[in-house]
Amino acid sequence: LISSILGTAYAARYGPSMRIFTLGAVTVPIVFGSLWPTFVRIVQGTDRRWVDDAFRLGATAVLGVGAVISVVMISIGKNLLVGWVGTAGYPGAGVLDVLCVWFMINLWVQVVAYVLIGFGRTPLVMRWTLVEGAVNVGLSILLMRHIGLIGNAIGSASAGLCLAAIPLTFALRRSAGGEVKIPLRLLVATIVVTAITSGAAVGARHFVFPELGAISTVAFGFMCALATGAEFLIVAMPSTDRSMLLGQIRGLVPGLRGDGD
After folding, report:
1. Distance from chain centroid for Cα 65
2. Which has more pLDDT, 172 or 259?
3. Phi-psi region of 178 (alpha: psi -120 to 50; beta: other; left: phi over 0)
4. Contact at 8 Å (CB) between 75 and 205?
5. Residue 115, C-beta contacts closer than 8 angstroms, at least 6 positions apart
6. Distance in Å from the first CA to the final CA of the chain
7. Exposed, middle or buried, 240 (CB in 10 Å: 0-12/13-18/19+)?
8. What backbone phi and psi angles, to 5 degrees, belong to 179?
9. Within 10 A of 176 (CB to CB), how many other CB atoms are there?
10. Cβ within 8 Å of residue 95, ≥6 positions away
11. Residue 247 carries which DSSP code?
């Protein structure tokens, strides 16, 4: 689509970034694949006590990983892409920022779709997916003709939000009958943490670390990932979930030490 409208050079700029975000989206089947037996029990009508907990914890894990990837891509994405495929593979800061928004929307859509399918609403998910895909193509073509490559990213993010994320979220709320709560705190915290941390990282790159070598770039990206993860853990997770997670981590440490001995 990009090649036919803008040319192959623009498609080459867009492809590497999409590969990274596509790889990041693998977290959804990894996390929710392990929770699938719980969602199967939804269809069978048995043992629904853990549905809301499984959904909340799974969504937290997926969005947390997504926030880390987004902040790293915003802060050092140019260095990563130029080092990987050269300057021809860098789409520009604006395109990269919008792709991060699309990436987070796509993660949420996949999370909600998994649970809706567990409730037996596969036809509904497919209908909205088809509508979103068709509008995405049409809107992206229109925007690319007027504003260039960033139009494709804006078209994808806009269609994903308006015709997938929002309607599927409302559908989940209706289908769950109160058994699955929409984690508004998690969604707001994800937006806040990602925006503030990426903004701080970009500011640090411009004013404190304007020139970074290969090793220092990796170190800076690692620090951004740690900061995002820590902020997300504190802001997005309820204290009960956070205590449970930290307790599990502390429980693993003695076992690892014992194995080492």
Report:
1. 7
2. 172
3. left
4. yes
5. 39, 42, 51, 55, 172, 176, 180
6. 57
7. exposed
8. -80, -25
9. 20
10. 13, 14, 17, 149, 150, 153
11. H
Q: Which of 119, 120, 126, 123 lies closest to 164, judged by CA?
A: 126
C-alpha closest to that of 235 among 200, 187, 202: 187
C-alpha span between 104 and 110 (Å, rounded): 10
Q: Which amino acid is at 186?
A: L
Give me the residue label for tokens 């994808």. 156
CA atoms within 13 A on the CB side of 97: 7
User: By C-alpha distance, which of 164, 157, 171, 182 is closest to 101?
Assistant: 157
Residues 31 and 187: their CA atoms lie apart, in Å, by 18
Residue pair 28/110 in contact by the 8 Å Cβ criterion: yes
**221-234 pLDDT tens trace:** 999 999 999 999 88
- pLDDT of 134 reads 96
Higher pLDDT pick, 255 / 71? 71
Q: How far apart are CA 119 and CA 117, in angstroms?
A: 5
Binned at pLDDT 50, 70 and 90, residue 256 comes out as very low
